[in-house]
Amino acid sequence: MTAELARGQNHPLPGTRLEIRVSAGSPVLAGATFGDEQGRVSGAEWVAHPGAPRLPGLVVPRQAAADHRLTVDPEALPEAVHRVHILLALPTGTGGPSSFASVAAPFTTVTGPDGAEVVSYTLTGLGAESAVVALELYRRQGAWKVRAVGQGYEGGLAELLGDQGVPRARDLAGVIEAAVTGGAAVPAAPAAGRSAQRSRVDYTHPRRQPSAPPAGDMSAPGPDERARPVAGDATGWSMEERLYNQVRGMFEDLARTVAAYRSAVGFADSRLERETDGVLADSRSRTGPAGAEARRQAQEKRDLLTARAQEVLDRDLDQLTAESGVVEPALAPAFARWDHPVWQGYRVPGEAPLAVRVGDLHLPVRPELHIPMLVRLPLERGIWVDSGRTGSAAELDAAALRSRAMDTAVAHTARLLAVHPAGEFSVQVIDPAGAGAGPLAPLTGSGVLDAPPARGPQGVTAVLARLVRRVDLVQMAVRGGAADSLSPDLDPAQQLLIVNDFPHGFDDRALTRLRYLADEGPSAGVHLLMVADREDARDHGPVLDPLWRAFLRITPVPDDHIADPWVGHAWTYEPSVPAPGSDLLRDVLRQVAAARRA
């Protein structure tokens, strides 16, 4: 069983190789420091960061990202090292958030060599800080332990390193931040004195080197010479984890490939503009045949660069399309689309999956290339299905949009029930006015709910009170080191609360309880799935802003509101729902209900 740590708590670790996983709502840089018995860092050589990612027994990522994996081998650490601090910091100069107050609480886990989670820790309560010591691994009487630290620093990485005794901490922080910002390849103008004909732009993507040559280099292998894509061609302890990592890699590849293309075109356009300005600045060549020829040559250079960039983009997109073609058929129900044949032979599983699919993502450059949007389980934050008339939904009828939002929520709920073992996932519903009775029919009619949807203010109060009590009891048991001695009447299953028509039926106390569940519920196995139009809650003003920020927002219709953590493209999200008129949802839920009864 995973130990869920609160700030200051510790837990023993196995002495074997460990993996530390970090999940944040925005790109962060991850690093680590080696400390002596007092936790002091002797110098920059004891700091692992994106510019110097390897130390004996330790490897950290090379770039900022929303998800990280760090490896630590306690047996390979130097004898002088008694403490290893895991650091997180928001990169500067990238236009991203400047403090942790504006991002989701980072979530960390420590896993053993078999992939099983040993401990987890959510860094809540951060505000103006831009750097934080997340975890501390320390040696005590020959054995290693981990402590949840959560110590933030408003002065950023420089203040953090200085607090650990690093000499010239500010200089080192600058080196680290330069390594992070320098990790994104941005085409540069030719250096002074170089011929424009000799300038070369690197269009390559780091994971697609064989298929992305520099401009002018036509030696890259053709489509027939490259390796055929294979499902599960990624690292991981199981096929499920390999497929998850492969999908994640495809997501990153597509983001960076498109970014490289756009950068190349931008560079070509800026060079054309610069050369054209040079022609116009020279009165001798501004008019006449010489000026026209210079402008023609500049345009030809621009067209050549953009054509080569387009060629590389098409090549990478073809490769990703082929990879998607072998990955999609190999996906299990948790990762698969509802129209996947695997659902026709569905059986209730024996263990919970690593993640679950909540929709598809695609970019305008190739709309038919869909990347599964996978969310890790157990859910680390609530899900908000936005029923408001915003974005692409602005032209839709309000009533129809609300109905589609509830259909989307029910489809996600059915998938969550279907991918968990019988009895390990329970669902409760708050529908104050009964407005969602129609879309909720698959859940209410199949028998998968333990109780009918709660209605009216009294029903809202009763459900929220029960769940708040559960969170309080679990947190007290964990803090007291008695997580295995919870009351036998406490349902051990993960709890999902569907809230429809919010904030109808919610008084001030109910709103406070809902915010508490959004913040503290996931760590105690209580998760929220809310269907709401933010405009309906406008009378509450900014008091609900933290609530909206706590959720992963999705929409019942395609909408380009999702940003990737690497480049920040605006991705079009499409919800994952069964085809209209399909009985698949009811059939799957009937099997789930039968397994629960058995």
The profile of the biggest β sheet is: 12 strands, mixed
Low-confidence stretches at least 5 residues in length (pLDDT < 50)? 183-226
Q: Judging from the principal axes of the Cα atoms, what is the shape? A: globular
The value of Rg in angstroms is 27 Å
Structural class of the secondary elements?
Answer: alpha+beta
* Total strand segments: 21
Fraction of residues in β-strands = 15-25%
Q: End-to-end distance, in Å?
A: 25 Å
The overall pLDDT, averaged over residues, is 85
Assign a percent range to the helix content.
25-40%
Q: How many helix segments?
A: 10
Index terms:
598 residues; alpha+beta; twelve-stranded mixed sheet; 10 helices
Characterization of the model:
The protein has 598 residues and is an alpha+beta fold. It has helices at 156-163, 169-181, 239-281, 289-327, 398-419, 441-446, 456-479, 508-520, 545-550, 584-597; strands spanning 3-5, 10-12, 18-35, 47-48, 54-55, 58-59, 65-72, 83-89, 107-111, 117-122, 131-140, 143-153, 355-362, 371-376, 383-386, 425-430, 494-502, 526-532, 552-554, 559-563, 570-575. Strands 1, 2, 3, 4, 5, 6, 7, 8, 9, 10, 11 and 12 form a twelve-stranded mixed β-sheet that branches. Strand 11 (131-140) and strand 12 (143-153) form a beta hairpin. Helix 7 packs parallel to helix 8 (508-520). The longest helix has 43 residues, at 239-281. The chain is globular, with a radius of gyration of 27 Å. 39% of the residues are buried.
